Amino acid sequence: AQSVTQLGSHVSVSEGALVLLRCNYSSSVPPYLFWYVQYPNQGLQLLLKYTSAATLVKGINGFEAEFKKSETSFHLTKPSAHMSDAAEYFCAVSRLSGGYQKVTFGTGTKLQVIP
Amino acid sequence: GAVVSQHPSWVICKSGTSVKIECRSLDFQATTMFWYRQFPKQSLMLMATSNEGSKATYEQGVEKDKFLINHASLTLSTLTVTSAHPEDSSFYICSASSSGQILATEAFFGQGTRLTVV
After folding, report:
1. CA distance A70 to chain B (A)
2. I want to staple B112 with a disulfide (CB 3.0 to 4.6 A). Which of A25, A43, B33, B45 is the partner?
3. What is the tens place of the pLDDT at every residue in A33-72?
């Protein structure tokens, strides 16, 4: 069984401030972990993924996330928020099952960036 | 990179009609495709998993006779919402996964289809 918990359905930050979106996972096997961003009425865009290589993962648009096994966490950060970062962010965990990746999503965190 | 194309991006239909949504992997062979439904301000809920050439596996609570899934080739899966009702209005997203070594670490998502039943 696998699951992810995203703490905070809404996060507001000022433009230029640090962005921190929290994600904790539960998985019975070593997980693959992902962060996706979704803009209104659009699909999902992959920000970054962890696949058991480096624990600090750098993604697109200046985002990064650190895999901490001891804390079962995979929090997403960005040093300085831009207005264009306002969107919904989903943490996801997947495992290889029957030759394919079975993905479980968190409930999402809506990021608001205040000018 | 791997690209998944979903069509149409939005559709409005009358209650009682059927609507077909296509999901295509453009540059890789998708051995498995997934269909998700997303209600407003909620996360993605997996509806079904389909493997090429075999019947789809539906998640608990999803009506297989209402949401018909066909995965006839390694690059195309379709979701047909039959006898649509207003409560079927939602955002539907597909994703595709490959068993190929390089692509097997993630699933790739389409852009979604906004279905509105009036």
Report:
1. 23
2. A43
3. 999 999 887 888 889 999 877 889 999 999 999 999 999 9
